[in-house]
Amino acid sequence: MPPQLVWLHQHHKQCWIVLCTLALLLNTPATAIAGYTPPPRPSAPRRGTTTLTGVRGGCGGEVKVPLTALAPVQHVGQTISTHPTVVWFVPDQKPYPIALTLFEATEKGRGTTLYKTELQSTAGIMSFTLPKDQPGLTTGKQYIWQVAVKCDLNRPSKDQWVETLVEVVPIPSDLKTRLAKTNDPLQRSQLYGQSGFWYDALAEAIKTPRANTLRLELLKTLSQLEVAEQQTRLTAIAALLEQRP
Q: Looking only at Cα atoms, what is the longest distance across the chain?
């Protein structure tokens, strides 16, 4: 075969391989990121046990998104952990003292104070895990967690605060088996989210910067289940996270 024809044959073969590869990539569906699916029969919050915020705005004045609990308020979010992680959003760039309090939930609202700690606020997403040296929560019970930002220590009426419920439930045996097969936070978060365990799904998703897409999907799918005000807040927070590199 003449050299020119050899070159054309090889060049045509290479182009064909490239085109086939591109076609395969374009026709291969992207790995789906599963968000949050609520429990089949979630508990409804009792009257007086869920408050979106005590005072509008932020400590420094008007903000796009106020202090927000990143948790369900339309239904009671569940966890399998007796030392759960709770997550919230702080709008203020300036740091302020924070009081985080855990209460027993009663028919009338807040019951006995079980745990209280002082923190310093940072802008954006904050989280806290009940320390292992503290008594664990009881499976089958509901609790109220509250975050209060102390805008002015001399004027408690200026505090910004949110509170909502968390319910500790037994882990299903099939989920336990699947979780035992992976230590990857992204995979574990998706397993929790698909099984209706909001608190555990978000706790895993905030462990690694790689999970930003998953965090967005969790917030977006939860927002679709929420009352209008909480939906607006979660959607706005997801939009802020989406702007990050």
A: 93
What pTM value is reported for the model? 0.84
Helix (H) or strand (E) holding 163: strand 160-168
**Alpha-carbon gap, residue 151 to 158, rounded angstroms:** 6
State the Cα angle at 121 between 117 and 126, rounded to 5°: 85
pLDDT band at 19 (very low <50, low <70, confident <90, very high): very low
Report the 3 state secondary structure along 86-113. EEEEECCCCCCEEEEEEEEEECCEEEEE
Residues 198-238 pLDDT 10s: 999 999 999 988 888 999 999 999 999 998 999 999 999 99
* Token pair of 7 as six digits: 């070159």
CB under 8 A, 24+ apart: contacts of 127-130: 127/85, 127/86, 127/87, 127/88, 127/203, 127/206, 128/85, 128/86, 128/100, 129/83, 129/84, 129/85, 129/86, 129/203, 130/83, 130/84, 130/85, 130/102
* Alpha helices in the chain, H assignment, sequence order: 3-26, 173-179, 185-194, 198-205, 212-223, 228-242
Question: What whole-number distance in Å separates Cα of residue 142 and Cα of residue 102?
Answer: 11
Show the CA angle centred on residue 44, arms to residues 58 and 235, nearest 5°.
40
- Whole-angstrom distance, CA of residue 213 vs CA of residue 45: 29
